[in-house]
Description:
This protein is α+β, with helices and mostly antiparallel strands. It has two domains: 1-38; 41-252, Jelly Rolls, CATH 2.60.120.200. It contains four helices and 17 strands. Strands 2, 3, 6, 8, 9, 10, 11, 12 and 16 form a nine-stranded antiparallel β-sheet that branches. Strands 1, 4, 5, 7, 13, 14, 15 and 17 form an eight-stranded antiparallel β-sheet that branches. The radius of gyration is 22 Å and the shape is globular.
Amino acid sequence: xxxxxxxxxxxxxxxxxxxxxxxxxxxxxxxxxxxxxxxxxxxxxxxxxxxxxxxxxxxxxxxxxxxxxxxxxxxxxxxxxxxxxxxxxxxxxxxxxxxxxxxxxxxxxxxxxxxxxxxxxxxxxxxxxxxxxxxxxxxxxxxxxxxxxxxxxxxxxxxxxxxxxxxxxxxxxxxxxxxxxxxxxxxxxxxxxxxxxxxxxxxxxxxxxxxxxxxxxxxxxxxxxxxxxxxxxxxxxxxxxxxxxxxxxxxxxxxxxxxxxxxxxxxxxxxxxxx
Length: 275
């Protein structure tokens, strides 16, 4: 009698545990999507097209276009890990991705956060004397806005400017190993300042000054600044949020290859193991 009751209880516990796992997996895509979009993700380039001249944008359909100034377009390569799929490699001389969208949350909202995976091949001061090259950049003459930078010493920096190009907050720090994939990010909170991150760890920060962040109209560029700079690196998983994310949130998104709702990567075989 006691043996039968024990067996029934054990069977019921296993059934309830299995049911909770199944329910959790069914809700997982919603949790992932809500978790990322709760942070106001407004632009996401996965770079998983793998061919052609277009980079599909996942949030608002603001697809990027591969381009160049007198050379070849960026080339498709493997991303930092298999789950991230493909990436783009930029030559640091002529090529880039242009995204025809006007996003200026650093000036009009609660701030901005930009993140990306990068593998830097080389750095070099350009003909304008700039000792930094942009991973993500928005702004040009009279409408300078923001940039996530790699410096000549392989530091990571984040800059926000007023329209004339005077800095509002421009910290930089840390050092990226050459030819290795790393997760970089920068954030800006109006009235507070900017922060720069490598692999989810804070490497630099600076307070905002009295300059007013610019609300411009220029497109966004990957690996290029409109007045000449180019980045020699592979780039993957570019994301922009319209708020200054906490360090914890930035770190939590490091290994999250956000998928469209409804896709699961966990197999039934893994669920059934031990049951």
